[in-house]
Amino acid sequence: MSQTIIEVNNLGKKYEIVHERGKYMALRDVLMNIIKSPLNFFKSKAKQVVGLEKKEDFWALKDVNFTVNKGEVIGIIGRNGAGKSTMLKILSQITPPTTGEIKVFGRVGSLLEVGTGFHPELTGRENIFLNGAILGMTKKEIVKKFDQIIEFAGISKFLDTPVKYYSSGMYVRLAFSVAAHMEPDILIVDEVLAVGDADFQKKCLGKMGEITKTEGRTILFVSHNMAAIQNLCKKTIWLENGQIKKIGETKDIINSYSSNKTDIPNITKKSLPLKVGDIVGKINFTEISITNGGGSEMIQSEDRLKITLKYNSDFKTEIPDIRVLISLICEDPQRNVLRFDSHVTTKTLGDGIKPSGRIVCETENTNLTEGKYIAEIMILPQRAKHSQLKLTKEFEIMTDLTKYDYNLKPDRDNSSYLIKYNFKGQAGN
User: Fold this and answer.
1) What is the domain range of residue 27?
2) Which of 100, 173, 183, 420 is 20 to 30 Å from 156 at the Cα level?
3) pTM surpassing 0.70?
4) What is the rounded CA–CA span in Å between residue 390 and residue 308?
5) For the chain, how many structural domains are there in total?
6) H helix intervals, 157-295
7) Are 247 and 117 members of one domain?
């Protein structure tokens, strides 16, 4: 029988927002106004009190209910401002709830922001003992784990340096290492891991997977990295506007969340003016989709890619000689990793495309590394040299970390070799 370790009932957190009209004034300006015209100053202040200053209640969380069982790894996703960090702060007992209650059965270790629980004047060594004490560990327990913490964090050279001189990445490495090795019953991790480098992020995800499988500890993990959520969490909570929109199996939640995104434009500009013979018209691109070979937006590193452009036009006959260039750009670090050209592959768009339908680019296995990418798509009519259209679409590549030992480093860049691809035009919607 599953043992409940966190129980949240009707949780709510309210903040008071003050709206004040008028520009910001420095103290010296206020004093000068009082000296020059005290009567006008106090009249202005009275008006502000009466009507120009308004207060508004803002619910960062409202009516949130869920339970977490021992040993579960729960992902928490949502847009900025959805209430994710507020909920973790309440669970970590950093801030109290306005309504409702939480029940936590066990010791909590939190990693909510860079340097949480660190004293800047203390050295790395001293902060390890300080953090351990905060987590309720004895000195003997801390000493037992000390060497493992240092080895994992990789900061032995700076161990006796005050942490105020650490970079943000060093802060994160040490803070995570302490939290993971001090054996809290519940480990709460916010987006802070994004500060670390890619290798350390993978190392952290591997460590979190290890402590849940072998040690049965519970993790709450907030991230905008859907690949990390997918790899680590079996269950995910989707927050929107301070309320739970959906709870369920991670794959289903991420699919729903990804298809619901409205903050990333699908197309930057969608109409391409064109002259075909004596007819002047436009090709209107209506949708871009990027999926794996099976049609899913959950794309793994080893998957094939299928990039589909839906369009319609003002023309009644076939549109000749349309060239399509697709560049895949990795966001971090930003670099062009692959390029597909409809005019150099063995299977192309042929002599033209139908008046309406789809342009499809299909690839073999890409073996792209995990991360966020942008597909930059150029539409180039070859008979209209000065007419072109640029479209963009964001997508994400995931890696199944269960297939890898997190202590191992890849021996090559899997995206550095050529892959086969083809283009084709399809009629209809």
Assistant:
1) 17-56
2) 183
3) no
4) 15
5) 3
6) 168-181, 198-215, 226-232, 250-260
7) yes
